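Q: Hi! Curious about what RNA methyltransferase looks like structurally. Here's the sequence.
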Amino acid sequence: MNSAGAADPSGQDVAGPTEWGDGQVGVGPWEIEHPGRLRPTGDQWDPELLDAGDRRNVVDRYRYWRREAIVADLDTHRHQFHVAIENFGHDANIGTVVRTANAFLAAEVHIIGRRRWNRRGAMVTDRYQHLRHHADVAELMSWAESEGLPVVAVDNLPGAEPLETARLPRGCVLLFGQEGPGVSDDARQRAAQTVSIAQFGSTRSINAGVAAGIAMHAWIREHAGAPRN
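A: Let's find out. The predicted structure is below.
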């Protein structure tokens, strides 16, 4: 896969929305951006990016790095929470969930149900985020049990514990249902804990991608230190 394209569900490389290559995003060639400075050497550096510039949606510390080197570095300090989202109806929010999981450095994103999903919302971050597929809820639960990770369902259900006061396990799987029906009955019954997000308006629910971001940030506030960027 080249460094200027994102993978779409069909497996073809297409231009990512933040990687057009001819805009002002990112940096230009090394010699132009750093006149008079020696060109860096080492396994993490990508010669093509050093020559042509790095227009990817990455933080500055990873400019000109090879994708594999970025992933390897991220793997040294990923957080202990996982994210799972049910995809039994081609949920359009999965890309947003993946992008947010990357921002908060989740260990993995687990997609339950349909394997195919619209990657455009991920804004190319799926290249740097570990993804795992499970055919159904039972398979996810079996995996989580084998890893010693409690599953925390996030849904506004009767008896749910308010996320604002709940204590989230350091190692856990945050589970989100698809847009509309929310967490499936099977997942709800198997989850070790269910938390809800306080709402004050007229709607009964919030967007699944937004809910995922709120829950992940709640984990970050409770367990994570200052960012390295």
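A: A fun detail: The domain at 81-223 is CATH 3.40.1280.10 (Alpha/beta knot).
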